[in-house]
């Protein structure tokens, strides 16, 4: 297969694969086109974003009043468990994998992922996991009510005594989602390592590709540990072994180690590609090269490795010996260094640029500011004395919602708007986009900022009822929560409306530099008629140099004056 | 131009420092009353981090907002900005500054932690026992009396306290002020978290272990004890009062409690569970039944009426 | 702002290079498989760590009436399994020289040795006086040996598949990556077993 005639490539027309439908129906097939799979991921995960958001509305509704009066306590507990599980395993991870699926082959100049069929299998495991998780609502005893950490012994308590219970289905769903993620990670790492276009050296890859690589390496070393812990928990729950069951001599804290060994780095799996999105969007709309490209790339990889030795900061109050507390405090605060370097690099990229505040730029800027805030509360949480006070309180909930909503979800929105013209061939509606941004920005702060004072005052997380002293901030947070719920409406309207009848998008509506902007919108099947030869670094704004050999890239990015 | 820029930056930095210092002082008001010796140390660290955090936050957001306000592109301007790709000395500086900052934060936090000398559980593996410790409680107090030892029993969803000296049981935690207290934390079922926000102290209670936990209350009053590690259905209801009183009041209370015959105390989880099971229609899913309401010498006031 | 697609090819030799670059499917498959094995090894590592921690922290490690594990038969098993790694290497050498029958004979021998190992383990399991739920020792013992045994079984099935495919004419025209992967997997399973044997049987 090494000597494919040039004619064979040149004759490829932008047609779907033989036998595959070319209309909307292709999104419901076992397509192996990375772009179809990317959109499948994005749409599926957004559906579950709405489901998880619905659960959040019930949680915020319950917390409007101090008493547990809206829903039964068991239902409340199921709601926060499922909210966390759905938002992480069915929204954040799949949506990021979807975006990476769409963009990585285009950005590195490949026709597809390294293993297209594995890619499709990995995607179709997500709906399977989702159906299992949703089916657990109909299991005896309802869905899992042990929180998304599923800490034993609470997760091993099975009041119905049935073999098929919510916790069992939960573990199964998480395991399937984990296998899917590992398949995806193998695929991404291989694709990025082996499928780059000629001339695309490591230090010519866009930062987004760097961050996807960093994130997927974390999946490869972290997820197996969670899988091991989940298997042992499943054995305890189903066969009565004693790994984590203290009543039989097991050690429940060991589970916490397994869980956090993956689930803390998992936050970097989410946030690293978001950093990549920032690094793509800021140069485009500031019309300046990314400041300090190499150090930004290297700092992503640094985070990959440092994040593997920070997990115990989730367990400072779990009966951890002092030496461990101190060691993990030092490693955790160190994460702030590569992260801070990136923040400075973005600010320097913006500084003195020619800023254009389009919807993706607004979302990226908003997300950047909220990330700085989240980083500062993160440093506070890393220090042992303060963590002992605010651990497991709403301070933590506020902190990680600034990360996961304020930064990651807002960053996802930025990415969706930014690449919407490329994916669909249509322009989105700018007015609706700006409305979406402002509602989201205000809603996020109104929802999650009050959680910080609540945590400092000592309100534990996961409570269905609370002391009346906490009522004021909770009401504010709930108003913010409902506002966020409303904020998705203009987004849905915009996406559906624009996809159906938006203005036709040109190939490169943002005059951006990058291989994905050099093909048509939407790109043809197999992306490139001829694999481009990359001759420059990725962010040549203002430099008037071509990105690929024999191309008028410079003409594309700078208007003749 | 240079001098003017430097002057502007200096003025901005001073203004930012002043604002940050003010915010750092406000931080004390965001926290509950300081009812233990440890809380003062924690708050000091928190105020420091809020000051530092505010400074950084204002720097970054200030720069972003300034550039967003000033460096906007003209409507028909399609030219690019200056192609500045980096600045090695600047990048070295802004890598070095965070490194210095985080080391400062971590070392300071470690010092505070050692002063607190919170006795966590002695883990199964005694790998390392850190450092000569200058404890938060004043030395004379320690000389005055040995720490008061109290057993804390937790179960789904009950807090029960036992004073072994007087053989008193209670559902309200009474503590003498200005005296070192040594709690023996234990659980009968799942992991619970022992958390008194006013003391800034928290410790998970691990099954099959007795965890020694020491601190010094320094302010009389009534505070809340909450379960901080999610423990199942009635987790949120697993709260009770902590009463810190003078040594004399504390002894009086102990003596009176010792004379009382044990009564069944109110327990919110058990009461709600009974009420729910009396209803014809169950609005929720099946739950682990709560432990029966405890029988104690002294029952907390909550729910008595 | 038009697409660059319609542009004439500029550098012909680069295109040939590009075609080669993106169609190295065998290389991708081998690379991806190694990445997968590295990831998989973390699961085993997690189980090893659990075993280690449980063993050093549990006071009554063995269930009542158990004093330890017999090592004679497992040692024979170990020798058979570890030697099969050399046998599979010889099989691969034969394939490399396009000696298909030599390949098949030694490949089948590897399968037989793997099957012997599995049978030996099944026999050991059936004779043990403790079960999966007999405390932490029983749990970790069966978890480790069971999970490893599952990998041995997978390896044998993969080998079977490769053996059948060796009879398809022209099977190796596209390269031998399937055989290489199976063989790599087999070495991996062997190395895991050596660690496992030391943990479970030597360290008693």
From TrEMBL, chain A:
Specify the Cytochrome oxidase subunit I profile domain's residue ranges: 24-535
Q: Which GO terms describe its cellular component?
A: plasma membrane
List the Pfam families hit by this protein, alphabetically.
Answer: COX1
* Sample GO molecular function, one term: oxidoreductase activity
- Gene3D superfamilies documented for this protein: Cytochrome c oxidase-like, subunit I domain
Q: Which SUPFAM superfamilies match?
A: Cytochrome c oxidase subunit I-like
Please report the record's description of how this protein sits within the membrane.
Multi-pass membrane protein
E.C. numbers: 7.1.1.9
Q: What class of enzyme is it?
A: translocase
- Tell me the route in metabolism or biology where this protein functions: Energy metabolism; oxidative phosphorylation
Q: Which segments cross the bilayer? A: 36-59, 88-108, 120-139, 168-186, 207-234, 254-278, 290-314, 326-350, 362-382, 402-420, 432-450, 470-493
The cellular location(s) given in this protein's UniProt record come to:
Cell membrane; Membrane
Give the catalytic activity: 4 Fe(II)-[cytochrome c] + O2 + 8 H(+)(in) = 4 Fe(III)-[cytochrome c] + 2 H2O + 4 H(+)(out)
By sequence similarity, the record places it as follows: Belongs to the heme-copper respiratory oxidase family.
Annotated function: Cytochrome c oxidase is the component of the respiratory chain that catalyzes the reduction of oxygen to water. Subunits 1-3 form the functional core of the enzyme complex. CO I is the catalytic subunit of the enzyme. Electrons originating in cytochrome c are transferred via the copper A center of subunit 2 and heme A of subunit 1 to the bimetallic center formed by heme A3 and copper B.
Q: What is this protein called?
A: Cytochrome c oxidase subunit 1
UniProtKB/TrEMBL annotation, chain B:
Q: Where would I find the Cytochrome oxidase subunit II copper A binding domain in this sequence? A: 145-256
Summarizing the function annotation, the protein's role is: Subunits I and II form the functional core of the enzyme complex. Electrons originating in cytochrome c are transferred via heme a and Cu(A) to the binuclear center formed by heme a3 and Cu(B).
Which InterPro entries does the entry mention?
CcO_II, CcO_II-like_C, Cupredoxin, Cyt_c_oxidase_su2_TM_dom, Cyt_c_oxidase_su2_TM_sf
Needs which cofactor? Answer: Cu cation
- Principal localisation: membrane
Q: Name one Pfam family in it.
A: COX2_TM
The record describes how the cofactor is bound as: Binds a copper A center.
Membrane topology term: Multi-pass membrane protein
Q: Where are the transmembrane segments?
A: 6-24, 45-68, 88-107
State the GO CC annotations.
plasma membrane
* Gene3D superfamilies the record matches: 1.10.287.90, Cupredoxins - blue copper proteins
- Gene Ontology terms for molecular function: copper ion binding; cytochrome-c oxidase activity
The record's top EC class is translocase
Q: Name the family the entry cites.
A: Belongs to the cytochrome c oxidase subunit 2 family.
Whether Cell cycle counts among this entry's keywords is no
**Source superkingdom:** Bacteria
What this protein is called in its record is: Cytochrome c oxidase subunit 2
Per its record, the protein catalyses: 4 Fe(II)-[cytochrome c] + O2 + 8 H(+)(in) = 4 Fe(III)-[cytochrome c] + 2 H2O + 4 H(+)(out)
The protein's UniProt keywords, in alphabetical order, are:
Copper, Electron transport, Membrane, Metal-binding, Respiratory chain, Translocase, Transmembrane, Transmembrane helix, Transport
* Matching SUPFAM superfamilies: Cupredoxins, Cytochrome c oxidase subunit II-like, transmembrane region
- E.C. code: 7.1.1.9
PANTHER family, per this entry?
CYTOCHROME C OXIDASE SUBUNIT 2, CYTOCHROME C OXIDASE, SUBUNIT II
Q: Where in the cell is it found?
A: Cell membrane; Membrane
This protein's record includes keyword Transmembrane helix = yes
Q: What is an annotated GO biological process for this record, any one?
A: ATP synthesis coupled electron transport
User: Which part of the chain is the Cytochrome oxidase subunit II transmembrane region profile domain?
Assistant: 23-120
TrEMBL record, chain C:
Every copy of the Heme-copper oxidase subunit III family profile domain together lies at 1-204
Gene3D superfamilies given for it? Answer: Cytochrome c oxidase, subunit III, four-helix bundle
Molecular-function GO term, any one = cytochrome-c oxidase activity
An example GO biological process term is: aerobic electron transport chain
Q: Which GO terms describe its cellular component?
A: plasma membrane
Protein's cellular compartments: Cell membrane
Enumerate the PANTHER family for this protein.
CYTOCHROME BO(3) UBIQUINOL OXIDASE SUBUNIT 3 (PTHR11403:SF2), CYTOCHROME C OXIDASE SUBUNIT III (PTHR11403)
Q: What is this protein called?
A: Heme-copper oxidase subunit III
**Annotated organism of origin:** Oscillatoriales cyanobacterium SpSt-418
